[in-house]
Amino acid sequence: MASPTLITPTSKSTPLIKSRLTLPSAAATPTPTPTTSSSNVQLRRRELSTLVATILFPVTAVAAAWASSDEEYVKETADMIGKVRSTINMDKNDPNVASAVAELRDASNTWVAKYRREKALLGRASFRDMYSALNAVSGHYINFGPTSPIPAKRKARILEEMDTAEKALLRGR
Questions:
Q1: DSSP 8-state symbol, 148
Q2: Model confidence over 39-62: pLDDT tens digits?
């Protein structure tokens, strides 16, 4: 049984990347009048600038979307601290534990995905402690299930990291 990526002498090679760029037909593009060579150069410059603007605009829009304000970070981190505390302090017989853990995991994944790439936040003590606590909580629920209670020693360490992160947030760190 041959692998689909194995190239044999009888197999046809297919391009790995399919281009979405379609070249315009000759009938659809207006042909410039050959009055002078400077008009051709101006037309090429205009086409090139349009192409460059088309390529660069989405990149700058995405980069601006990643950036977030400091107030937003502080608010969302404080909300995450509250969610973690309320979820890990729930009684193991509570019927809402599984849904609360699922909500916490979604929120923590969103928080980590949003702030993990922020270079300005990586050195902050609040980010470090919060990331560590979220990692411990998510790891526990992934390995032992959403209804499994967190052991006392791990719970104490997570709550201590939450306290440290909260203090660091209040100090602007």
A1: S
A2: 676 767 777 676 666 676 654 444
